[in-house]
């Protein structure tokens, strides 16, 4: 269904991004795997993707670095062809109450989670406009919808992703490009491994379980496919009902 399309997935070496890369490749897309430091994981994912008979290439790139992102998008376009599906998934947390949160922890989270998405949208934008087609899928969070105490920086970055998504959806709609966000709840990855998943947490999730990276990947696959051609500026929660 995505045969011949090029998907660029940031933060694809682990967790949700890895599941997204696999899901898009299973459906025929060639994948650019963007990672920050975990080269072995990124390379091993690429080997796995190639076994699915698609092209896959890993690129080390700090999403917060404007020039690195520009160079990476140029390299992907040269090696795999222009990007058809951009998934802004890379993200970090630096949790703490505002009272004790350091300035650098606020800046780091905004720079990776929010500016990182802007950087990739900015540098993929001309290619999308030339093709008059494309999909942008930004990974937000229920923290951006509800606000989460102890995560002011993260919640702000993820709420910012929703504003960014809606603004760019309006900008690019005339060119046939759809821009949407996915807001996961508690998903089992490295990011949440230290969160105490007691009955208190599970009690807040109507479906009674934490999510799997594949749950998020299914929503991204839907938004990347032909079935979502008339959906733009939307935010899909994948949270077991947490933020109802
Ligand atoms: P994760 O397991 O911690 O993986 C983070 C990924 O982002 C890794 O691939 C990492 O690369 C990459 N990354 C981090 N900083 C980067 C940077 N500066 N430049 C490029 N890549 C960078 O996280 P996850 O749980 O899969 O989360 C993925 C996304 O979903 C994030 O945006 C997160 O905020 C969002 N989300 C997660 C949950 C959840 O419950 N897990 C809930 C809501 C939203 P390396 O491997 O190279 O370090």
Kindly describe this structure.
The protein is built from eight helices and seven strands. The protein has helices spanning 15-26, 39-50, 66-80, 103-131, 142-146, 152-172, 199-203, 213-224; strands at 6-10, 30-35, 56-60, 85-88, 134-139, 177-184, 235-238. The mean pLDDT is 97. By secondary structure, the protein is of the alpha/beta class. The longest helix has 29 residues, at 103-131. Bound molecules: NADP nicotinamide-adenine-dinucleotide phosphate. NADP nicotinamide-adenine-dinucleotide phosphate (NAP) is lined by residues 10-11, 13-17, 34-38, 41, 61-64, 89-92, 112, 139, 141, 184, 186-187, 189-192. The site of NADP nicotinamide-adenine-dinucleotide phosphate (NAP) has 31 residues, from α1 and β2.
Question: Given the C-alpha coordinates, what overall shape results?
Answer: globular
Number of strands: 7
Q: What small molecules accompany the polymer chains? A: NADP nicotinamide-adenine-dinucleotide phosphate
Strand content: 15-25%
Fraction of helical residues = 40-55%
Top-tier CATH class: Alpha Beta
Strand order of the largest sheet: 3-2-1-4-5-6-7
| CATH hierarchy: architecture | 3-Layer(aba) Sandwich
CATH superfamily: NAD(P)-binding Rossmann-like Domain
Total individual domains:
1
Individual helix count: 8
Order of helices and strands: EHEHEHEHEHHEHHE
For the biggest sheet, the summary is: 7 strands, parallel
Q: Gyration radius, to the nearest Å?
A: 17 Å
The helix-and-strand class reads: alpha/beta
């Amino acid at each position: 269904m995505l045969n011949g399309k090029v998907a660029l997935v940031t933060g694809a070496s682990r967790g949700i991004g890895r599941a997204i890369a696999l899901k898009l490749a299973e459906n025929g897309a060639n994948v650019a795997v963007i990672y920050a430091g975990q080269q072995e994981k990124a390379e091993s994912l690429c080997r796995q993707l190639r076994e699915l008979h698609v092209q896959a290439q890993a690129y080390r790139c700090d999403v917060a670095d404007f020039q690195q992102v520009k160079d990476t998008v140029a390299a992907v376009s040269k090696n795999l062809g222009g990007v058809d599906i951009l998934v802004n998934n890379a993200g970090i947390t630096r949790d703490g109450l505002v009272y004790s949160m350091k300035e650098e922890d606020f800046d780091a989270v905004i720079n990776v989670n929010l500016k990182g998405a802007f950087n990739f949208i900015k540098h993929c934008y001309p290619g999308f406009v030339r093709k008059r087609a494309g999909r942008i899928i930004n990974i937000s969070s229920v923290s951006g919808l509800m606000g989460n105490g102890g995560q002011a920086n993260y919640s702000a970055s993820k709420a910012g992703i929703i504003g960014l998504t809606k603004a760019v959806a309006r900008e690019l709609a005339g060119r046939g490009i759809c821009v949407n966000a996915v807001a996961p709840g508690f998903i089992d990855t490295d990011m949440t491994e230290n969160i105490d998943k007691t009955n208190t947490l599970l009690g807040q999730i109507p479906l009674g379980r934490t999510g799997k990276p594949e749950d998020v990947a299914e929503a991204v696959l839907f938004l990347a496919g032909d079935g979502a051609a008339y959906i733009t500026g939307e935010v899909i929660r994948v949270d077991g009902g947490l933020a109802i």
